[in-house]
């Protein structure tokens, strides 16, 4: 069960936005990711709890940002309930979309798992529901994902290979704005992406290559 820390920053000017301390692992139902989000000065600012099924669909999502909260799941598209800080109003919603997205690295892993792209194969178009800080307001967006390549990397001690990971390089295009970014994943870990830096990891990424389809 990998545990670690992502550092988050503004992808344009690299202003620090805080960090996400996480743990994740595949299991009988699919994959689960939990995390606590902290501000740059160390205060708790929110949390992430995401469970995927074996096909990469969101079985359960719970996001907190400040006192805002969203609970959602895949149900005839995506369905969710958003609760205001006072806890007085719960706004339900639903939309024809494939997955949730937002600033957490977990969403990048989830979309990659859902699409299961082949290196060098065609791009895939995906409709996402974005939930971003500070108020977790929902909006839909369309992206195109392409798996450009998969490269094995080895760590050695002398002549002996001590560990091996495969790095998947994705090109992600926003179909509304034309913005393009690169996302580098290994298993269920984001190695690098705009606004995201893997700062600490206590175990190798989990290998999903043999997971049930």
How would you sum up this structure in a few lines?
The protein is built from one helix and 15 strands.
Describe the fold and architecture.
- With 213 residues, the protein is mainly beta.
- The chain contains one helix and 15 strands.
- The longest helix has 11 residues, at 105-115.
- Residues 156-162 have low confidence and may be disordered.
Whole-number average pLDDT? 91
Please count the helical segments.
1
Largest β-sheet summary = 15 strands, mixed
Biggest sheet: strands side by side, in what order? 8-7-6-5-4-3-2-1-15-14-13-12-11-10-9
Give the end-to-end Cα distance, rounded to a whole number of Å: 21 Å
Strand content bin: over 45%
Shape: globular
Q: Helical amount among residues, as a percent range?
A: under 10%
Q: Which stretches are low in confidence, meaning pLDDT under 50 for 5 or more residues running? A: 156-162
- Give me the Rg, rounded: 17 Å
Q: Work out the oligomeric state of the chains in this entry.
A: single chain
Give a count of the beta strands, DSSP E runs of length 2 or more: 15
Strand-and-helix sequence, N→C?
Answer: EEEEEEEEEHEEEEEE
Structural class: mainly beta
List keywords for this structure.
213 residues, mainly beta, 15-stranded mixed beta sheet, 1 helix, globular
Task: Furnish the topology, listing elements before pairings.
Elements: E1 3-9, E2 16-27, E3 30-38, E4 44-52, E5 58-65, E6 68-74, E7 78-83, E8 90-95, E9 99-101, H1 105-115, E10 124-132, E11 137-157, E12 160-174, E13 180-186, E14 189-193, E15 196-201
Parallel strand pairs: 9-10
Antiparallel strand pairs: 1-2, 1-15, 2-3, 3-4, 4-5, 5-6, 6-7, 7-8, 10-11, 11-12, 12-13, 13-14, 14-15
């Amino acid at each position: 069960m990998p545990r670690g820390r992502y550092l988050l920053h503004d992808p344009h000017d690299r202003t620090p936005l805080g960090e996400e301390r996480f743990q994740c692992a595949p299991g009988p139902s699919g994959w689960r990711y939990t995390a606590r989000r902290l501000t740059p000065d160390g205060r708790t600012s929110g949390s992430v709890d995401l469970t995927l099924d074996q096909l990469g669909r969101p079985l359960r999502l719970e996001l907190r940002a400040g006192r805002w909260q969203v609970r959602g799941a895949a149900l005839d598209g995506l369905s969710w309930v958003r609760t205001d800080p006072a806890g007085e109003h719960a706004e339900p919603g639903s939309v024809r979309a494939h997955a949730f997205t937002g600033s957490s690295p977990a969403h990048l892993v989830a979309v990659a798992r859902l699409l299961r792209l082949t290196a060098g194969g065609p791009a895939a178009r995906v409709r996402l529901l974005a939930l971003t800080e500070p108020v977790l307001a929902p909006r839909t967006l369309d992206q195109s994902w392409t798996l450009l390549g998969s490269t094995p990397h080895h760590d050695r001690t002398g002549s002996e290979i001590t560990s091996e990971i495969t790095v998947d390089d994705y090109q992600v295009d926003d179909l509304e704005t034309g913005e393009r970014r690169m996302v580098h994943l290994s298993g269920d870990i984001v190695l690098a992406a705009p606004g995201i830096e893997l700062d600490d990891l206590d175990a190798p990424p989990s290998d999903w290559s043999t997971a049930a389809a």
